[in-house]
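Teaching assistant here, posting this on the class forum so everyone can see the example we discussed in section. The complex has three components, and the goal was to see what a joint structure prediction looks like when all of them are supplied at once.
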Amino acid sequence: MALLRLENITKRFGGLVAVNDVSLEIEAGESIGIVGPNGSGKTTLYNVISGVYPPEHGRIVFEGKDITNLPAHRRAPMGIGRTFQIPRPFSSASVRENVAVGAMFGTLSGKVSVDECSEIAEHYIELVGLQAHKDKESGTLTPVEKKLMEIARALAMKPKLLLMDEAMAGMHPRDIDDMVRFLKKIKEDEDITIVSMVEHIMRAVAGFAERVMVMYRGAKLIDAPTTKALSDPRVIDVYLGRPTGEGEDAEG
Amino acid sequence: MILELLAGNLIHGLLLGCVYGLSTMGLSLIFGVLKVINVGHGPFIMVGAFVTLAMVTIFGTAPPVAIPAALVVGMALGFAFFYTVMRRLIKAPEFTTLLVTFAIGILLQEVVKFTFGAEYRGYNWEVGKIILTITTIPMTKVYASIGSIIIALLLYLWFNKTRTGTAVRAVVEDSEGARVCGVNVDRIYALSFAIAIGLTVMSGVFLTMFIPVGINPYMGGVYTLKAFVIAVLGGLTSPYGAFFAGLIFGLIENGAYVLFAQIPGVAPFSLTVSLAFWMLFLLLLIKPTGLLGAK
Amino acid sequence: MKINIAKYYPLIPVYAVYLTMFLVGFFVPGLWQLVALLAFYCALGQSWNIFMGMTGYVDFGYVTFIALGTYGMALGITYFSQFAGLGIAIIFIGLLLALFLSTLSALLEAGIALRLRGAYFAIACIGINEGLRHLIEGAKIWGGSEGMLYWKELTEVFGTETAIQLTTLWADIAVFIIAVIAAFINVYYMRSKIGYALTAIREDEDAAKVMGINTTKYKTIAFLTSGWLGALVGAMAWGLKLTHVFPADVFVIHYTVECIVIVVLGGIGTLLGPLVGGLIYGLSKYWLAIILPGFQLLIFAPIIICIIIAFPEGVIGVVKRRVKGTRLERYIL
């Protein structure tokens, strides 16, 4: 049984079709990348999966259960976790409190006390390297620190499926490599299936994902193992640039 | 008889609706441009009422002279409040602006109370009436409605035919996009706020031409409620929607009054005010984006 | 279940202040009225804070709860005084009615308004005050605009002596008790899952939903709690103490304004904030009433505007920043 199955998902905003008949199957334990230029519908797809809005057509099946119309807050305890492209910290709360929220309302919801959540939070804060800042007000962190906190918070939810949205945008190539290593490690340690969504940092995709889905203008262009997908002529066309870049990318 | 009574009242309602509509256009403009709900809306209408009172009783002029005076006062207040307060709150969380606009309303009430006292005041302006078979319409009401319609039309022309008006519409659509196109967004914010407040204060003048009694520092509260109902009805961001929604509201309000008056043992005026609120709840339940607008 | 006592340390300064106030009022002649007034504002502030302070949603119709609480007590005394032998129970019936009426109102409001976002919610609430008041006056419910007077009924049940005691001493003591309860609930919520959820909702409601927080449920919990406490304050401080109620007196947005002033002054979303704000505002009002009656809002309105712009975190917010990292931190919430 696939962990997540998207069947013919279509999402419209007025006259604009943001996601057009996209189907995808993800097995537990996979490392998937979703790739596509700006406006290809990736974030919208994420929003549909995490429940921000329902699709006009199609089904979402998670661990065999149809969650298409399930409210967003019910999906987190089921095991769907997510980070946002622009981090959304709960600014006036401390880093520890932020990450504790993840533990409190994720898959552990109802099973742990508030104090235990604080401890779990500390563990993940250390994991991402933010322990020096754990009692700082999260609104005062640098953008990179906020991104790391987002990840810690999502991990604290102990998700089965983690949707990462442009987690590496704005990072130096060396940091990207570190991040890729980090993601691979937590995948192993935490037993999570990670879907990483990037616009054009092919270095990250190539390093991390075993399989890639390329989106363009809301539709699925190709869904194949990484090297095959990224060297497909249609994909190259869409990007007008080199798929496995030396750190720099061009956009069409 | 009932039908005649109803028809007569509906005419009054339509006329009053014009004033209601005008008073709400300011609210919609502020929300559309600044994305701020001016919870202190009613007190600004009250200021307009007092400007009229002052002009009539202190300077001895006829109420229409108060119209430009109110506009000037309103715009002055608008610029003043924008540059001292509102400008700092563009990036603030929502409840901050709600609290601040509310506090501004309270401030206005208290200042007016301090200056003029808390008693109920009124004035008299006899300019004749139109006598129809079903009802009698005082000319003041006619002037007030016509005045409101004219101002609304002028606003429409300004929005659509002038450069500044177009810039305002651009900012409503997308402030960042407008900025990139060379629009001085901060100045547009200030100007829009000032014009919106000016409109609101002006509508206070027209309101007193309709109801020249009961003017007191705390009269604004009820109009805040009504303005919100109308604004939601007309779609929060559309000033034109607000105007037509005002007409509808005036009709419903006056119609309801007649019908309530038929029920024995109730106080129809109070029930009518209460009706505004229930309408609001109903609207928010069914279609918060308004019947005429879209968001 | 291990109870972490350290979580409740912040109650120590709060209860110390309340105890001091009570003792001062009780033993220093002539100060009881002042102390009762301060307790009233502190209780209201703490109650208001549970919803507005913790969620960031402004309920401009809050006074409705206080008013309905008053009516609850009024109805309890008026209609149950005829059942001889109930004695003190009618006071508790009054409290129950207060809670019942406020629950109805809260559910009505919550059902519609809480599904809306900040601005629309505020709009919905702004009218509930006027709407309910004019409904009561218009449909002539509960005495219409004449309201209800029930001093007589009260004396019938308790005798004049006790009735006087109830309406002066015991009503005020009850307000103190409500303040104590409200403070406890504040801390309990803040330190529990509820508090985390509400903070998340206040900061970023959409992100909160995605993190698994049922925003409607938690907003409703805060809303109901805040409403109940407001209703209890109304039942005691107005319903029992004044033995009369009429719409123009109780459905006055003025009291919502005072709640806002108290909480903004002291510090939105903090425990000590409403206490400090209540004391400052209560004292100022009391003294201003002597030298410049009716002017306190004229003075406070611009103060509030300045505070929101310059020090949005209020007095206690600033204090919290200062004591961060020191031993005092665990007592200041």
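For the discussion questions: Chain B has a mean pLDDT of 87. The domain at 2-286 of chain B is CATH 1.10.3470 (ABC transporter involved in vitamin B12 uptake, BtuC). Think about how each of these relates to the inputs above.
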